[in-house]
Amino acid sequence: MTELTGGKAVDITVEYSTKDVGWSGAGLVLGWQPESLIAAAVATARKADVAIVFVNNYSGEGLDREDLALPGDQNQLIEAVAAVNPHTVVVLNTSGPMLVPWLGRVKSVLQAWYQGAATGTSIANILYGDAEPGGRLPMTFPATEEQGPTRYTGGKNDAADGTLVYDEGIYVGYKWYDKHHAEPLFPFGHGLSYTSFQHEKVRVTSRGRGDEAAEVGVEVRNTGRRAGSDVVQVYLGHLPTEVDTPARTLAGFAEVTLEPGQRRKVAVTVTRRMVSYWDESGSRWVTPAGRVPVYVGRSATDAEYAGTITVR
C-alpha cells in the first residue's frame, strides 16, 4: 500500500505473473481508499440504540477467494463499532463461510448471502421482526483458515500449480468434520429462530422392503413466545457393512411452522437409497441387511440418537 498526498506524484512499480490468469486474460486495476470512515461510523454508533453493520466479500468467475477473511478494513470497522455499542448487529452479504473474529463481541449475526433485488426488503423484514430468519446453513463454517479438507493456495504460493486436489472421498463437507473430530464455527444445518422448540415423542418405524426403508416421526412444540419455524433433521449412522461409510449422513428433513405453545407431528421418510452404498467395483447400489442408527436434531452436530432402522 502506498500513501498518496494530493498534488504529489509517486512512482508505482507493478510486478505480475500470468500463472493464475483465468479465461478473461490478464488485467490491471488501480484503486485507492479515501481516509477511513471508521471514526464517523463509531461516532454514529455511539449515539444509536442499535448499530447495524453491513459487510461483504466479492467472488465470482475468475475471482476465487484466496482466504476466508472479510476484505479491507471491515473487521476493524465491526470491532470499533461493537466497542461503543453493545447492541451491534452484523449482516454478512457474503458468498460463503467467513472468519468472524469479533463474533463474541456483537449481539447477533445475520447471514444474508447474495439476494439480488430482494436484498433490502428481506433483510429489513428480519431485522424489524416482521419475518423470522428461518434458513439453515447448507454448508459448514470452519473455525479457522486451516480447518477443512483442502485449501487453495495458488494465488499466494508461487510453488503451487493453482490446482486443488479433492481426496476426501465420501467424506465431503460436514462428514469430513465429523470423521476428523473437528469442531467447526457453525455446523451444517445450523440456524437460529426468534423462538425456541422442543422435540418430543421421536419414533422410528421400519418399513421393510420397497423404496421406503423407514419413517421417522417427531412431535415439535413451540416453547417460545412468538410464531416461528423449526427444521427437523434426520441423520443416519454407519451402515451394517465392512465398507467404509460415514458416521452421520443427512437422510431427510422437514420444516414446520408453529404458533406459541402449538405442537405438531412431522414425519421424515428415509428411502432405501439412503441405507445403501455405491459399490465401485460392481457399479451398483448395495443395500446391506442389518440395523442402522438414526439421529434426530437441528444440525449435523446437534442430533441425538433416536433409534434404529432394520434393513432386510
Structure description:
By secondary structure, this protein is an alpha+beta fold. Among the domains are: 90 residues, 3-Layer(aba) Sandwich (Rossmann fold); 115 residues, Immunoglobulin-like (Sandwich), CATH 2.60.40. Helices cover 12% and strands 28% of the residues. It contains 4 helices and 12 strands, in the order H-E-H-E-E-H-H-E-E-E-E-E-E-E-E-E. The strands form 4 sheets. Strands 7-6-11-12 form a 4-stranded antiparallel beta sheet, with no helix packed on it. A 3-stranded parallel beta sheet has the order 1-2-3. Helix 1 packs parallel to helix 2. The protein is flat, with a radius of gyration of 24 Å. The model has no long low-confidence stretch (mean pLDDT 90).
Q: Compute the separation of the termini in Å.
A: 66 Å
Number of strands: 12
- What structural category do the secondary elements indicate? alpha+beta
What is the C-level CATH assignment of one domain? Mainly Beta
CATH level-four homologous superfamily name of one domain: Immunoglobulins
Mean pLDDT reading = 90
Largest sheet descriptor: 4 strands, antiparallel
The rounded Rg comes to 24 Å
- β content, as a range? 25-35%
Parts with pLDDT < 50 across at least 5 consecutive residues: none
Question: How are helices and strands ordered from N to C?
Answer: HEHEEHHEEEEEEEEE
